[in-house]
Design goal:
Chain lengths: 441, 259
Amino acid sequence: MEGYVTCYLGSKIHIILVYKLNYYKLLLDKGDCKVERNSHRLVEVMSILTKIKRKSKGLIVCMNFLLSDKHELLKQLFREFAVNEVQPLAEEIDEEERFPAETVEKLGKYGMMGIPFPKEVGGMGGDVLAYAMAIEEMARVCGSTGGILSAHTSLCVWPIYAFGNKAQKEKYLPKLCSAEWIGAFGLTEPNAGTDAAGQQTTAVLDGDEYVLNGSKIFITNAGYAQVFVVMAMTDKSKGTRGITAFIVEKGTPGFRVGRKEKKLGIKASSTCELIFEDCRIPKENMLGREGKGFGIAMQTLDGGRIGIASQALGIAQGAYDETLAYVKERKQFGRPIAAFQNTQFQLADMHTQIEAARLLVYKAAFYKDNGMPYSKEAAMAKLYASEVAMAVTTKAVQLHGGYGYTREYPVERMMRDAKITEIYEGTSEVQRMVISANILK
Amino acid sequence: MNIIVCVKQVPDTTEVKLDPVTNTLIRDGIPSIMNPDDKAALELALQLKDDNGAKVTVITMGPPQATKVLREALGMGADEALLMTDRAFAGADTWATSKTIASLIKTLPYDMIVCGRQAIDGDTAQVGPQICEHLGIPQVSYCEDVKIENGLVVAKRQFEDRHHIIHMKTPCAITALSECTEPRYMSVSKVIDAFDKEIKTITFADLDLKPEEIGLKGSPTRVKKSMTKGMIAKEPPMDVPPAEAATVIAEYLHKNHII
């Protein structure tokens, strides 16, 4: 066996690693980080590379389908938490359409509401891959909880982290990352869904304050959020360049949360409308510069798609887990239905689709973590994972037969939860637009 | 206060299957976990740290892969971790294991040692108590809870029909029961920090021990053979209705002085 692992520091290739059976040598052009060891184990090669990465603060790119020990351990944490804290409530909060405030508080306690942000701003110092795995594991047992985590982190905490000024970051990020405050994001309006540029909510500067008027719909976490990142038109004549982002706090006079939607799935997530009636917010709550809101929204959604893709992946995995257990137990014609080739082929397809989705999701996370353009990767991950979620949960219900159609088994809920992943944060059609625009540009 | 917690990496026995031909454990692909009693021990130590302030050091003896449980311990809140690993330690029975671990602990500052009651792969419950004997410190095994009161360690020991509350001066040791404590989850930031911490490796050369005191050579016991207990009925099965079966069973048990 022999191969090359190419490492990039910045944009330039600096390290070439050659490994041969029991020997490999790492060469650095500067010669200040030379490593020679006898080993043929790829994992050891990787651990050395990780150490070098830490020292050099450089980027390492190599083909490796193994999770690092750190990510394995984080995945173990997410799984343990999901099984013990999230799964037992999943059926009940779906049935009661109740936001699981107690679970969200615990998610904050164990550092899961601010994973991909540096410790200096109050985050956990993790990366997007770890964050994606957290959503995946939550959604594997409860689609709603995965969605709550995703909307909070990707759509509220991230834009404040990426575009906020020092004062905004200091004020909002520690409390958001600890889940003392929950975050939401307001872009969609009754007449501005996929056509997000058609914003009708307005923000007019009056002295040191902006006055917001209009409404937003389908806002995830709205009923429980303290902080909202809201898009509004500051200059209609400029089209998308007239859209500005604002941070609005719960309790601001003139701002209220309106009707709660009755939904097909993710029933435990609080999806409501936002109403602004002469809502005055201080000028310093503008996020980024005036007229930059559309770009902020689009970049936020690029990242958010990794979250929704992870949620879809988790739902699909959860439905598969349930089905695998069920087909071994359920007997028809005197034997477990797993003994029938139809079942086996269905399982094989489900397993393969989930694995393909996972590779796309983790790859998009990897691109984002390493500062590479990830808009297309995130859109592909979201498009594919959400369609896999729908396909897998539908097959899961089918393999459960009549029982699968009842609320006695969780696959019924999972199938309902899966559908939203093809719709929110950009429909599948929007993802195809993003992907094709990237291909043809 | 310095607290040392001893942990062991064990195969997850709930996942273990037996090879039907050889009757041995199929270890391939079986996930390794932190021994449940040891995790409870760590939880008790971390509670003492939360309540009184303490430095918690975790020790494990095993192959390099055992680093995983040390990282997990750091992820839960331990401050430092030490890995005792050396080919020379291999094949150690409880005596050689406890002697090796005790020889490391002798070189460390400690006020308290917390071990799990027993490991799910061996179930001996010997290593913890033996470490204390090598060190010559008082110990309370089968602990459900532990507190610090007026400078004394107050341990609650499970007994057959009662609890014992025992006060000890430091340095001392306890062994903990898993069924009485719910170990905390790791936290994301602590897991991330865990991988920035160096886990110090201790080998035979670092210890004041002779080669004949450790590993297989230092082990006075040997497992000659292991076998699966077969369930063989002395008498052929009886086919009787349930109500009658209850009487038959009760009579049998009574006759044999079981009830």
